[in-house]
# Entry
Amino acid sequence: MSRARTVDLVYLDAGGGHRASALALRAAIARAGLPWTVRLLNLREVLDPTQKFRRMTGMEPEDYYNKRIARGWTAGLAQELKLLQAMIRWWHGPTVRLLQQHWLATEPDLVVSMIPNFNRGLRESLASALPGVPFATVLTDLADHPPRFWIDKGLDQHVVCGSAHALQQARDAGLPASHIHASSGMLLRDDFYASPPADRAAERVRLGLDPDRATGIVLFGGQGAKAMLDIAKRLPDTQLILVCGHNAALAKALEALPARAPRRVLGFTPEVARTMQLADFFIGKPGPGSLSEAVQMRLPVIVVRNRWTLPQERYNTQWVREHEVGLVLPSFARIDAAVAQLVRELPRYRAATRRLDNRAVFELPAILERIVAQADLPAPDFRTPGLSRR
# Structure
């Protein structure tokens, strides 16, 4: 039987998916009945406790990234990611010292990272401040984006991988089998496992939609995206639910567009799962969370892969093709033809979504219990021949 422990889940607000995964994992641990105290740790608050960055720039570091995503300014992010990683390596020493002080003051029994890029600093600071305390990284992407993104070679790091491709990447990075853990997908909130509404037709009518018409849900994360305007203009005859998140200006622009088919424009809603249950297919960006949510709701997907696709999300389009759960386009210019094809073949694509059984949110508590149980065993040798350490 598991004993009482204090567990820290580390997240950042860049993109929103890391916090959502941390909240889902905290709820899963509670539901599993583990006697653990779970704390959410925003890494930015530890590394910048006086909000120096905000006072200098007028925004949080994550705001810059989130605004670029909302505006579609994503070209060049692959190069910027390399610059960010270089800055993280340059600031590695101060990062470790700040985290050492935090661990000594808070004394967690397990640290779980839900973020990329910072895992070496997190692990090295924890090992030096609190030797023997285990460290795990739960990938909230379907694949790693090496080098030094989720999986760091030569690091005493447990990793939880939600795809066969990520598992192979962990093996290729030299992690021992005892430190590689498989889940059946991405972490999703409990409401994505709830039963569909008893009367879906009535729910559609309540939103002003035709109950018998094929319906797409267009969703680009919590901030929406300008691409939604182009999609809506190109689909005047398709019934749509357009979810804009916190982007009120986008919602207003979408409501002003003429359309021959019924459509409903929504702002931020905590009921994304319930809203997805009213749709027949999904249009959006190939984010790991959005894709996993759509497939869990048995919605075939239409996504785009091109030079504006985030580098860490490019594998996700390959995952869509491999599992045949939707269509991958070079742009939304032919979205009308893609929707027509998807609707014609909806039963086939829906059958493909049913072949994926994502139970990650129910698997993670047991995986973390096993990681804690391993903590008292002799540590494996993580030294990689020829590997230069920072």
